[in-house]
Design brief:
heterodimer, A: mainly alpha, B: alpha+beta, two-stranded antiparallel sheet, 15 helices, 14% strand
Amino acid sequence: MPQVRILFLAFAVLLRPAFCGEDADLRVGVRNETKAREFIPEVYRDVSRRLAKIPPPVSAAGTNEIPGAVWEKNDEAQAFIKDARNVPELYARLLIPPGFPNAVAEASKEVRVRAAAVLGQCRDRRALDPLINSSVYDPEEAVRATAAASLRLLEEPVAVRKLVDLAVAKDRQRYPWAVRKSACQALRRYGDKEALERLLKELSYELAAGNPLDKNNKLRGKAAGIGTENPLAIPDAPPDLQLSAEDLYPVLSAVKEVTGVSFDKGEKDMKTWFVWWHKEGAKFAFKP
Amino acid sequence: MENHMRIATKRLGYSQAFLAGLLCLSAALLAEDTITLVDGKVVKGTITKDEGDTIVIRNKDGESRAIAKSRISKIERVTVKAATAKGAALVETKEQVAKISEKEVSALYNELKDIGSSDPLKRKASLDAAKQKKAEATPVLLAMVNPKTPTDEWTHISVFRALADLAPLPDQAVQTLAWCAVFDAYPEARREACVTIRRLQDDRAIRMLMQYGTSENPKQRQAAAVALHEIDDNRVLAALIRAIPMPSVNANLGEQGRVQTPAYNLPVGPGGTSLPVFLPQGEVSGVATDISSPASELLKLIAGKDIGNMPFSWANWYREKTGEISADDRDAYKHNRSARDRMNAP
């Protein structure tokens, strides 16, 4: 038996470089810094520890301040921003909250807030997806707010489109109202009117000709016997699916959440929303 | 001394030949086809296509225009051959030009390749270079979004944004843009192409998208509908609704069979006797036409709703979508339509 064990070990040693080339490189010496940082937990630990020591990216919570603007004269923070331009992947991974796949155990709330601000300040497009995810899915309010505000610094219209996609997603199982509401909040924090224009466009498609799932709509017309629109009295909608208002009208709910506006009458009319937008659109401001 | 003179004369001869070639080439480049219309107007440019009933001519700015042959009184075509009679010199010059352009293209590609860079400064420099060399940069940018070119998503997105700044675009660029709006491998790049088409309000691209949307291939139809939904051009929706035919049902009496029994017995005979009345008998067959149409099918895909194939339903949908009528107006219209209208009587 010992001979078999020795034979197995010898094979394992011989075949190791073939199966784990990247790791083998890291063992003999750092050839590629990005890869090394991606795989060595010590680097994440060290960066997390140092990140947590720099001052917070905004002077007071809940303000409309640009995250990281206060770091202008902080050399250490500037070094992080410079570093993030070279390896945004490192900071993107620090944005993942503990408990999620690929998360770093040391990525506390403070670390994630600073990592989001650093990624925004580096103004690199590679930070787009991590910041969008963080602005919607992070369990901490402060991280979500910083990530959404940092997205603005990237000046990338794709961010708005992706957030709008999340906010009006029709897949109720995959994107429950909690997730969609979070995306709406991110849009509010992002504060771009293009988002509202896209939302209104989607709303026009949702409301025009009525919603077939809504039992209050009479798509087939009033059932009043022969000579009417619906002589056989075919039901207008499927049996009551017990859907909430947010699930029945996802775009309308998103528009209401982003604008903070609702109407007592004519809410499900595009006409009402167009009239409001023509009247208020120019002076409209997002509520934080 | 004589030797030197001979060499100098020879060189002079070469340079003269080169200059002559250049002049011929410039003449060829400046030469334009001329179309004189029936009303006396003259359109100048390069005739690019002859489509049977129409002729497509492209002007200096790269804009194409289709002219019906019935409107044309005279066409004067200037071919490169006719314009440049100096054969050998031209060949030499052409080769030279080709070599130069190849070099220039490489240099241009090197200038533009960072257009999709994650670094905003590099990106801006490439975009500025593209704007500066507008006409020369367009083919290079189009090559960058070719599926055979290994470029990433951000390069595609940035190329479409750059194309929006280079408008008016030549036909090839518009065709590429429309193609990419439907077939690009990257979803976000497809969306960016749609945004560019919307920004340019380019009818040529819309026409191509409509062709994709009414094709036989269901996947292509779906992809084109997604693009048209993204573009959300009211003119497209209105045009599609106008194109929906009114469904119609005809009842035809087939070939009459032999007379079997009287249809009626009426007491109109002498002395009040009944007289049989024979009527033609045969199977009644109905033909329903225009129940569905490519336009209504495409509208269903764009709207994500099936509200039937009636043009008036879609017209109301459009009016409601644009905020012209409310949901109550729509319901009232439905309930108040006359029985004649409901039966689709003309």
